[in-house]
Amino acid sequence: MTHLTLALDAMGGDVGPCVTVPAALQALASNPGLHLLLVGDPAALHPLLAKVDSALLSRLEIVPAESVIASDARPSQAIRASRGTSMRIALELIKTGRAQACVSAGNTGALIGLAKLLLKPLEGIDRPALVTVLPHQQQGKTVVLDLGANVECDSAQLVQFAVMGSVMAEEVLSLRNPRVALLNIGEEETKGLAAIRDAAAQLKNTPSINYIGYLEGNELLTGKTDVMVCDGFVGNVTLKTMEGVVRMFLSLLKSSSTDVGRKAKQAWWLTLIGRFIQRRLAKRFGHLNPDQYNGACLLGLRGTVIKSHGAANQRAFAVAIEQAMQAVQRQLPDRIAARLKTVLPKSD
Amino acid sequence: MTHLTLALDAMGGDVGPCVTVPAALQALASNPGLHLLLVGDPAALHPLLAKVDSALLSRLEIVPAESVIASDARPSQAIRASRGTSMRIALELIKTGRAQACVSAGNTGALIGLAKLLLKPLEGIDRPALVTVLPHQQQGKTVVLDLGANVECDSAQLVQFAVMGSVMAEEVLSLRNPRVALLNIGEEETKGLAAIRDAAAQLKNTPSINYIGYLEGNELLTGKTDVMVCDGFVGNVTLKTMEGVVRMFLSLLKSSSTDVGRKAKQAWWLTLIGRFIQRRLAKRFGHLNPDQYNGACLLGLRGTVIKSHGAANQRAFAVAIEQAMQAVQRQLPDRIAARLKTVLPKSD
């Protein structure tokens, strides 16, 4: 791996340094070319680094930040009062070229607003979109956007999302000519909201996008499309619904498998078989666990920003760091900018 | 059970009479007080009734309809050309008082439009909403609306949905003072679309509604609320996403449990245990199978209309018939009308 430097908002998220610092150390241990800038309160960070191997520490630097944006702060107010916060300093490290990307588990609205303010959208993009890559039933993956950066979208934005998603599917999933669908409430042309129907008409006339039509919510995980496009309100609710159902199943599954041994009069061999089956099932469904794909990429800016789930645990935050590394290595912003020039009308 | 007559659109749905007729016979066999009016093409229906017991047939009547509305027809056109179709005749049987409710698996848009045209909304309701009752993690159920009758909703409509959902939770789920939440992309007051924030402000000032605030998509199945309110676009995508994930899990689970026996060198006792576990898991998760709660109720009209899933199988269509019976027995339209008078401003 070539040399790569990321800035981490070490104070963001529901837990803060107790999750971000161990995840940072985990990422450093797995990636010898990685350097990390931990942005936050030195007094909170130093104790967590006390017993760390000096070889790891040599690739870690603390960048002091005096305050933190609260998770429940109103984004507009948080942005106005953002000077000196860990989130803003982490983003500024990209702007000044010291970091190639940044990861934060902090306030989503503030992160999107600040990132847009500091890093600026690419030419042809009105507003950035939050994107994630979901595992599907056919062993492949689907790029889904927008996940909440834009609660209301016009057709031009949906088309921009389609372009960005398409480039992401090519670069990150290594797909040629990825299929792009619009999420809608029916597959017939007349269905849904006006913005979606207008976007469909534009996408049909965009030869560089492999537009395949509308798909419904139940097709999200079936692998029928490589890119699923929707507005941020619908995308956010859909993703969270999916995560809720998956988490419920995984927890029911765990208790069910444990039951098998317990109910059968405690026979030791049934208990063993119960555990064996539980491990098999956990393996089978493990790739669907939301922790495995934590980290939404904020696409459409002149820089790479990864939003981690606020409630991410160490493993999940480490996955978000990996996502940032991948986005930098695949040069996503540059490739999206290049594709936009061939597809979209000039913005001015 | 007291005497009860339902009209079935026997021709609607992806399969038509081959699903609706066996489901009708199943419902008649289970409910001695039930009478059914099968609306459709007699030439298609008679052969399916040839070997049926005469006691059942005495509670079944064929009402001829010369045509059927195609599932993929444009609703506005289908409604204009609806005279003589099985769907329209089934609805007219409610209007003329021959049936107390109707069930159709046909074109959703046409059914909603025709039902509104023929049965008229209750005073205080702008447009009817599609409602379903979903099983949740705490062994209870949640009323969810709107599921697609209204792709765009203003705050007044969301408040009307909250009232209707609240009455449904009281009458169908027998809950006192049911909790009502608005589906949103965050729990903070500032989140989401303007219509949702306005509806929240109105619901806070409506003492007869137990409004508990915003909930996110991952709370849909956790049992935190008894009624979840959203616009029809979001509700439709959310429900279908949930169904897609549940179906995927159930199918993976089935193949996983079968694997257990097969992989372990075909030992007969492991195969038996594999089957035992599969049955246990199927039972554990069975209540989440979308077939078990098929049938969305079209609320807000002066009559009861149940929309079955177009792809419903016999069991699922029979569940939709049961839903219609329940809605009639609980006198949902009357009770909603009564509640509306106490809550909403007069419409004129």
From TrEMBL, chains A, B:
Question: What family does the Swiss-Prot or TrEMBL record give for this protein?
Answer: Belongs to the PlsX family.
Which domain of life does the protein's organism represent? Bacteria
- A Pfam family the protein falls into: FA_synthesis
Q: Which reaction does it catalyse?
A: a fatty acyl-[ACP] + phosphate = an acyl phosphate + holo-[ACP]
What the entry lists under SUPFAM superfamilies is as follows: Isocitrate/Isopropylmalate dehydrogenase-like
Record's subunit section: Homodimer. Probably interacts with PlsY.
Q: Any idea which UniProt keywords this protein has?
A: Acyltransferase, Cytoplasm, Lipid biosynthesis, Lipid metabolism, Phospholipid biosynthesis, Phospholipid metabolism, Transferase
The pathway noted for it is:
Lipid metabolism; phospholipid metabolism
- Asked if the record carries the keyword Flavoprotein, the reply is no
Q: Which GO terms describe its molecular function?
A: phosphate:acyl-[acyl carrier protein] acyltransferase activity
Cellular localisation: Cytoplasm
Native organism: Symbiopectobacterium purcellii
Q: What is the official name of this protein in its record?
A: Phosphate acyltransferase
Q: Which EC numbers does the record give?
A: 2.3.1.274
Q: Which PANTHER family match?
A: FATTY ACID/PHOSPHOLIPID SYNTHESIS PROTEIN PLSX, PHOSPHATE ACYLTRANSFERASE
User: Is-annotated flag, keyword Repeat?
Assistant: no
Q: Report which gene this protein is encoded by.
A: plsX
Function field? Catalyzes the reversible formation of acyl-phosphate (acyl-PO(4)) from acyl-[acyl-carrier-protein] (acyl-ACP). This enzyme utilizes acyl-ACP as fatty acyl donor, but not acyl-CoA.
